[in-house]
Each structure stands twice: as C-alpha cells, then as structure tokens.
C-alpha cells in the first residue's frame, strides 16, 4: 500500500495509457506502478446477491410507483378537461 505524499490518502491503482499508475483519489497525484509493486495489488469488483436483489426490489417498487403516479395524473387530467369543458359551455 502506498499513501499520497501530498495529503496522506491511500493511493489506488488506475489504468492510464496502457500502464498502471497509483493515483490519489483526493488530489490526483500520480506515480507509475512498478512491476514488482503490481503484485501487491488486486482489482476486484463484485456485487453481492443481496445488493443485486435490493436493486431489483427498488426498481420494482419504482415501477409500481410510476404506475400509480400515471393513474393519478390521468385522473387529474380528466378532471381538468371536464372542468374546462364546463367553463366553456
């Protein structure tokens, strides 16, 4: 692990122009990562099943909410149309 000499933030490996550099996410300071140092870093991106399900549930709820919202908008639109027809008579 390496820390930024400017602000002490943990530096993270980032691909840049085909090479890997260590970059400070806070201030942007960069230093080239040597082959030997690369062995100490692994890059992973995993999403747990629980989080995946949580996102799906949120999307399902949003779809239900959108449907209810649309029904309410239709109701209000019809009321406004009827009211404007009454006013024009």
Automatic annotation (TrEMBL):
Residues 2-57 form the DNA-directed RNA polymerase II subunit RPB9-like zinc ribbon domain. One of its GO terms (biological process) is DNA-templated transcription. GO terms for cellular component: DNA-directed RNA polymerase complex. Its EC number is 2.7.7.6. Keywords: DNA-directed RNA polymerase, Nucleotidyltransferase, Transcription, Transferase. InterPro entries: Zn_ribbon_RPB9. The keyword Transcription applies. GO terms for molecular function: DNA-directed RNA polymerase activity. It comes from the Archaea. Coiled coil: none annotated. This is DNA-directed RNA polymerase, subunit M. It comes from Pyrobaculum calidifontis (strain DSM 21063 / JCM 11548 / VA1).
